[in-house]
Design a protein that fits this description.
Helices cover about 20% and strands about 30% of the residues. By secondary structure, the chain is of the alpha+beta class.
Length: about 475
């Protein structure tokens, strides 16, 4: 009798723990799914657990955008929408003959939100001329370069969307689904991840890239804010773009960021591209005026910096796109010379160079300029995706309140994987920082508004391997 009672208790205990294990496993799975963050970055690995909500046949489009698959997800009031097409296209620009693509969202309050991709505007119902600013919708698109997979983010909180509310999604312009997609908001908002701005252990060099939006360093109305941004990250090397006409950057930076002791800023400038280093540098010749290159000696290690600002505007196969490709081919010529030892003759034969190429790539046409660089397997160069200090956004360009192009990623960091180990890397948007974080960084909330690009900071450690 006693053993039967014990066996019964043991059985109940096993059932209890089995139930607890099952519930825990379920919570882990639910937590993993609900915590999976969709990042508008032009990559689609984060969509792998999202089911297709609509299939559309190929060849039924009346314009360039032939929709084949549609996916939808949410976090709180933010809608994430992915749609695949048959051809490589730029979402926001192209020949007029290609037409446009409309995303039509029918809201529970009987309002209709229209997102006009090629018209680059959002409006309610038929109020085409009453454009809704992108920042009000927290609207982001990716990628900025031509693709046949696209993702967008739009915040519907301003339309009182809540958990359990349903919307319908339809397309128009180039293509239509056979029936609208119904989507129900079911996932809660995520608490934004907050990252450290500190240098991690082992960091050898901190590099900062900043497009100052047309002569920002010499603009007296913006200098104080720019100075706070630059000092907040305490870089060793700064790369600036759009400093077209300004000269005397050594003296300007000496006022904005006084160097230690009797040090000075070492400057190399090619048209609008400026490299400013705390350490002595040797200039490399540029084969066109859209990049500046320098060789910097750092504690017995040598670092090559290539500061890039490729041609803006255009779309895939446009004149501007072809020019970007030519500009990158020139840069590859310089990189080839670096790898052949033309600029570091003091190093031992076979030594692999450490290269960081960064700046405003303006990939609004094809992705070919970036692919030309990272597909060179002999160089071992890789693109590093940098997130914001707060949240998951990788947007580096936001435009102004009247900008027609939606915010997106235009700035890139490319580095040599055989000689450099990436450490910390982050974008700074002072508007997202809380009061404590701004106090730590000595920033004002509006400092990041002084440019249409965000400040980018990356840290590297030199690798011991030269193979």
């Amino acid at each position: 009798m006693h053993s039967e009672i014990l066996n019964g208790k043991s059985l109940r205990r096993r059932r209890f723990y089995s139930c607890i294990f099952t519930i825990t496993l379920l919570l882990i799975v639910i937590g993993r799914l609900s915590a999976s963050v969709i990042r508008i970055d032009g990559g689609f690995e984060d969509w792998k657990d999202i089911k297709i909500c609509a299939n559309d046949p190929k060849g039924d489009a009346k314009g360039a955008f032939d929709i084949t698959k549609v996916y939808a997800a949410n976090q709180g009031s933010i809608l994430y929408l992915r749609f695949d097409t048959t051809d490589l296209l730029n979402l926001q620009n192209g020949p007029e003959s290609e037409g446009t693509l409309l995303v039509i969202i029918n809201l529970p309050n009987k309002q209709e939100l229209v997102l006009d991709m090629r018209g680059r505007r959002a409006f309610l119902n038929d109020s085409v001329k009453e454009r809704i600013p992108w920042d009000r919708l927290k609207y982001i698109v990716g990628p900025t370069y031509a693709q046949n997979e696209f993702e967008i983010q739009v915040d519907l909180g301003g339309f009182n969307i809540n958990d359990g509310d349903a919307i319908s999604i339809q397309f128009d312009g180039s293509d239509q689904l056979s029936a609208p997609v119904t989507f129900t908001f079911s996932q809660p908002s995520e608490i934004p991840k907050r990252r450290s701005h500190s240098r991690y252990s082992g960091t050898d060099v901190r590099i900062v890239s900043f497009n100052t939006y047309y002569e920002g360093l010499s603009d007296p109305n913006r200098q104080e804010a720019i100075g706070r941004l630059l000092n907040s990250v305490n870089g060793d090397v700064y790369c600036f773009q759009e400093e077209w006409k300004t000269e005397g950057h050594g003296e300007i930076l000496k006022l904005l960021m006084p160097p230690e002791s009797k040090g000075r800023w070492h400057i190399h400038k090619v048209l609008g591209n400026v490299i400013a280093s705390k350490y002595p540098l040797k200039t490399l010749p540029s084969k066109n005026d859209r990049y500046a290159a320098a060789y910097i000696g750092l504690a017995e290690k040598d670092l090559f910096i290539i500061n890039v600002h490729l041609k803006a505007m255009g779309y895939i196969d446009s004149r501007e796109d072809r020019l970007r490709v030519r500009q990158v081919n020139d840069i590859l010529g310089t990189i080839d010379e670096i790898y052949k030892g033309k600029y570091n003759k003091d190093n031992a034969p076979g030594t692999q160079p450490a290269i960081v190429m960064l700046g405003d790539f303006n990939l609004v046409g094809s992705r070919k300029p970036l692919d030309l660089i990272i597909d060179k397997k002999d160089y071992g160069l890789k693109d590093w995706l940098i997130p914001n200090l707060i949240g998951e956004s990788v947007v580096t360009w936001r435009g102004g309140p009247r900008a027609s192009f939606a915010p997106g990623k235009l700035d890139y960091i490319v580095y040599s994987t055989r000689t450099l180990i990436p450490k910390n890397g982050f974008l700074t948007n002072s508007e997202l920082l809380n009061r404590t974080e701004r106090r730590q960084l000595k920033l004002d909330a509006g400092d990041s508004k002084i440019s249409d690009h965000l400040l980018i900071t990356v840290d590297f450690q030199f690798s011991d391997s030269n193979n």
